[in-house]
Every structure is written in C-alpha cells, then in structure tokens.
Design brief:
By secondary structure, the chain is mostly helical. The chain has one domain. It contains 5 helices and no strands. The longest helix has 33 residues.
Length: 119
C-alpha cells in the first residue's frame, strides 16, 4: 500500500461518490502537488498497467477512456512539471477519474483495513 493511503482515501471516496461531475472537475482543477502525485501513482498507474482486475463492463469503459485521453495520461505519469501534470489530470476529467476511483477504492480500503493504525 502506498504511503498516504490513510490520508487520501477519504478524499478519493468523496471525489468518486459525493460530487457531481462538474464539482469533481472544479476540485481537479485545484489539487495540490502531493494529491496529484498520489492520484497518478496509486489510482491511475495501477489501472493503466492492469495491476488490478476489473469487471468486464468497467474494463470496457476504462479502455474507452484510455483511448480518449492517452496523451493526458502520458503527461500525468511523466516527469513534467506539476502544473502540466495537474492540467493533464484536469483534462482527463471528473467522469473518467470516477471510473478509475471505482476500480481503485475497494482494493485500497481493503489494504488499509488489514493494516492496523500506527501510533
């Protein structure tokens, strides 16, 4: 489990289920560097590299999104400046990010549940 999961999981859950697509887009436009990096490494990269199994329906929707936003995904996962990577995440948009979060939140929560709180 990546560092910061305990910190970021509530935000990821809110992004995925509590906000409309427009509200999610506003949040994406204003994320800080640490959050952008976490989303890139712990949400986007595992889905793109097929490190997790997806339901057939979700898999089809994710593949369509990947085809649509390939340049943005490449920029997000590159070593480009933070500003360019945040812009790429914003271009990917709220609906696509919601699909990725749908795939990643359950495994992250499961891993967190197995790990006791550190004092």
């Amino acid at each position: 489990m990546g560092s910061g999961t305990r910190y970021f999981l509530p935000l990821l859950h809110i992004l995925q289920s509590s906000l409309s697509e427009d509200e999610r887009q506003i949040v994406l436009d204003h994320l800080d560097q640490r959050t952008t990096d976490y989303i890139a490494e712990h949400v986007v990269r595992p889905v793109l590299s097929a490190q997790i199994s997806l339901s057939p329906e979700l898999n089809d929707r994710v593949k369509d999104s990947i085809r649509t936003y390939t340049p943005s995904f490449e920029m997000l996962l590159s070593t480009a400046s933070f500003k360019k990577r945040r812009r790429a995440l914003a271009q990917i948009g709220g609906e696509t990010l919601s699909l990725f979060l749908e795939a990643r939140i359950p495994p992250l929560a499961s891993q967190l549940k197995k790990k006791p709180l550190e004092e």
